[in-house]
Design goal:
heterotrimer, C: 1 helix, 3 strands, elongated, binds fe (ii) ion, Aromatic_CoA_ox/epox (chain A), Phenylacetate-CoA oxygenase subunit PaaC (chain A), Ferritin-like_SF (chain A)
Chain lengths: 251, 329, 93
């Protein structure tokens, strides 16, 4: 694959993952366990959509086929979406949301940190701004891991259940594929952050009183290449309903 | 308004001469536009009425997130999604500012919220109406937040300091809400398809009357209203505010190229105001009594969120206690 | 019944002023109170520093205080009315 082609793929992965996670945050609106958490989740959601828009904009420029950021977000189907599998999993209870967010935030933080050094200045710039926001996201989800892990018997049980359910999707966070390796070699992409990711997760798990499972192994699914769980289709159906139902409309 | 039909417990106004020295001093401060602060002496009725009014106002902000939240996952573009999210989040913030003001009066937020969930306290009638199309996001921002602004601007000068200050912060944020709503409608009317234009008119048809009802029935002869005015926790009559809202809204309606579902709406040269048709107050009272399109669902959703979140809040408390114990050891 | 503790919040705005009381938040502990205060009171970058104090720890005298207004944020422009360009006929909104 040419570097440009790989870069578009890479940008869409970053954008789609942000977008899908933000959509899950939107689902919490009116349903959060405390009003303060409502505020916090909407803030994080705003950050993620803002980041998604930056990545989409850049991808759209490189694609140069007339599609803009909105088109990329709202008119591609589930086989074309490139988000990480962990992002599309249903929001579940607050333990599920916390674990999803924590796994992602740790990964996101490591990736963005490296991307601030990218030889592609556009990427470095977007990453630098996003990194500030994500540093805060990671701090918050880490704290909630500890609160739920050490809180009550019930919260600990729910947290452990969430880990058991979600762990299988984490191979995408700890592994890279050809696209990522190619861009890392070119000094553009973040490359493999698996070791650092696992070390940080292990540290927090120990403090939260959780057992660290064996590394997750790749299985049939492959979100980065458009092979998703069944959840994504419904998420997109809802999110993309208006632009698809009224293709000629201006909103 | 956001706090409709607040009971003051008053049968009629006391004159300064009938008041105890404390109450008289209090009333003189209020008359002189000096703000009352949490630690100042205040009549029991004033405290209770304010708690009722501010809690209803706060509940309305929080329940008011739901009709818009209904379209948050379906916002049609990145820009619109960001705007709606920021707007809804502001409303959560308004609720929290207000609860915070209410708590300075000695009320407890969680207890007041439980009263809402038990159906003992009301929230604004407007939020019991369903949102049936994307244009409703525009109509709500423009009409509902517009009406709220008309009501809230004078409350920035209300006699109770924390409430007035909360209102100042709220009003600063509200004008973005109204403008984003109007811009949604204007974009659809100017650049949209015929189908979209129909959506806009339909949304206005459904939200027009309920927005006018937000101000509550005429209160010219109400003892509650007279007392609230004397305490300066209400500064204008319902009819006055409704008229003010209507007068500023009709030109905006015409600019959109839309119409109101009111054949009697017309400019009155003599009064310098718009005349309008009879409001269906039966619908308003029905809605307040719970006979409303979505009133039950709104409360169910809020109650479920708080009930389902109990284990989360408990976990946070348990963790905090463990941390404290560790620090002490 | 109150789940979480009431904390009073103080914000120092950008201009090198003192911390000022802005309101309160509920939180299980001080760390959470700081974060909740950040989410609630600094959404439009109104501050550079925050204090939170458990409300029960404050001994208050009676008296008046002035509240700060807040500076606009430079980032999330869509939160501000001026972001919405309306034609002059309706621009007083
Ligand atoms: Fe509001
Ligand atoms: Fe509102
Ligand atoms: Fe509003």
């Amino acid at each position: 694959m040419k570097n440009d082609q790989a870069l578009i793929e890479y940008l869409l992965r970053l954008a789609d993952t942000d977008m899908v996670l933000a959509q899950r945050f939107c689902e919490w609106c009116g349903n959060a366990p405390a009003l303060e958490e409502e505020m916090a989740m909407l803030n994080a959601g705003l950050d993620l959509i803002g980041q998604a828009r930056n990545w989409y904009d850049y991808a759209a420029e490189l694609l140069d086929d007339g599609r803009d950021a909105d088109h990329l977000a709202f008119r591609r189907n589930e086989r074309e979406y490139r988000n990480l599998l962990i992002a599309e999993q249903p929001r579940g209870d607050y333990a599920v949301t916390t674990v999803k967010q924590f796994f992602f935030d740790v990964w996101h933080h490591l990736v963005l940190t490296r991307l601030t050094e990218s030889s592609d200045e556009r990427i470095a710039g977007i990453a630098a701004k996003a990194l500030k926001e994500v540093t805060y996201h990671r701090r918050r989800s880490t704290e909630w891991m500890l609160r739920l892990g050490q809180g009550t018997d019930e919260s600990h049980r729910r947290l452990a259940d969430a880990v058991e359910n979600l762990w299988r999707f984490t191979y995408e966070l700890a592994d890279t594929d050809d696209v990522e390796d190619q861009l890392a070699e070119a000094g553009i992409g973040a490359g493999n952050v698996g070791d650092a990711w696992r070390a940080e997760v292990a540290r927090v798990f120990a403090e939260a009183g959780l057992e660290l499972p064996e590394p997750a192994r790749h299985f049939y699914m492959d979100g980065k290449n458009g092979k998703h769980t069944e959840h994504l289709g419904f998420l997109l159906a809802e999110m993309q309903y208006l632009p698809r139902a009224y293709p000629d409309a201006t909103w | 308004m956001y706090a409709q039909q607040v009971d003051t417990g008053s049968k009629g106004l006391k004159s300064l001469d009938d008041m105890s020295p404390e109450e008289r001093h209090f009333q003189e401060k209020v008359d002189a536009e000096v703000r009352i602060e949490p630690k100042n002496w205040m009549p029991d009725g004033y405290r209770k009425t304010l708690i009722r009014q501010i809690s209803q106002h706060a509940h309305s902000e929080i329940v008011g997130m739901l009709p818009e939240g209904n379209w948050l996952t379906r916002a049609p573009s990145l820009k619109r999604k960001l705007q709606l999210m920021a707007k809804i989040q502001d409303e959560a913030g308004h609720g929290l500012y207000l609860y915070s003001a209410m708590e300075t009066l000695g009320a407890d937020r969680d207890e007041e919220i439980e009263k809402l969930h038990r159906g003992e306290v009301k929230f604004s009638s407007i939020f019991t109406y369903p949102t049936l199309s994307w244009a409703d996001m525009g109509a709500i921002g423009w009409l509902v937040d517009g009406a709220a602004i008309v009501n809230q601007v004078p409350l920035q000068r209300c006699s109770y300091g924390p409430y007035a200050r909360a209102m100042i912060r709220v009003c600063k944020e509200e004008s973005f809400h109204q403008r984003q709503g109007y811009e949604i409608l204007l974009t659809m009317m100017r650049e949209g398809t015929d189908e979209q234009k129909e959506m806009v008119q339909d949304a206005i048809n459904r939200f027009w009357w309920p927005s006018l009802m937000m101000f509550g029935p005429s209160d010219t002869n109400s003892p509650n209203s007279a007392q609230s005015m004397a305490w300066k926790i209400k500064r204008h009559s319902n009819d006055e505010l409704r008229q003010r809202f209507l007068d500023q809204t009709v030109p905006q309606l015409e600019f959109l190229g839309c119409t109101a579902p009111d054949p009697d709406l017309k400019w009155n040269e003599e009064t310098g105001h718009y005349d309008f048709g009879e409001i269906n107050w039966q619908e308003f009272f029905d809605v307040l009594k719970g006979h409303s399109p979505c009133g039950i669902e709104r409360i169910q959703q809020r109650k479920k969120a708080i009930d389902d979140g109990q284990w989360v809040r408990d976990a946070a408390v348990a963790y905090a206690e463990k941390q404290k114990a560790n620090d002490a050891a | 019944m109150a789940d979480w503790t009431l904390f009073e919040v103080f914000v120092r705005s950008k201009h090198g002023l003192n911390h000022k009381h802005v309101g309160s938040v509920h939180a299980a502990d001080a760390t959470m109170a700081l974060e909740n205060a950040r989410e609630l009171y600094t959404r439009r970058s109104e501050g550079v520093s925050l204090w939170v104090v458990p409300a029960e720890q404050i001994t208050a005298s009676a008296g008046d205080e002035k509240e700060p207004f807040f500076d606009p944020a430079d980032d999330k422009v869509y939160r501000h009315a001026s972001f919405y360009k309306l034609p002059p006929e309706v621009d007083q909104m």
